[in-house]
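For this section, I looked closely at a protein sequence along with its fold in token form, which I now present.
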Amino acid sequence: MQRTEIQINDLSDLDRAAEDFIEKTRGHRLIAFYAPMGAGKTTFTTAVCSRLGVTDTVCSPTFTIVNEYVTKDGQTIYHFDFYRITRLAEAVDIGLDDYLYSGNLCLMEWPENIEELLPEETLKVHIRVNRDQSRTIWWEEQQA
């Protein structure tokens, strides 16, 4: 396994980190963010969407479960927040499979609540809050 890490020193470092993340995860369409409450999942997702050309306001879909964004060049991005999901059937009922197998980028917060439904190819990304309040984003992949 190869571990990749990206440091985010503070909010002013967010755009650089998002650009680095996009470059290093190119080719992945299903990205699940694992982190505790307040670690910055939505903040980082917003930065990634902005760097990808989303011009709409990006916000956590806590109550709607999924938000759909379109980039300047017409690509669709789905942003999920599974925090309020208490039964797998709730995710199935919103048509989760249709989203996951659409070929579009899916960025997921609180994926641990639907873990059993995630396809094997889902990239599991972790965000750690460091003692100095910086963040470390990391994931592991099989080496090619």
About this structure: The helical segments are 14-24, 41-51, 88-93, 96-100. Residues 14-24 form the longest helix (11 residues). Strands lie at 2-8, 30-34, 66-70, 76-81, 105-109, 123-129, 135-141. Residues 2 and 27 are 16 Å apart (CA to CA).
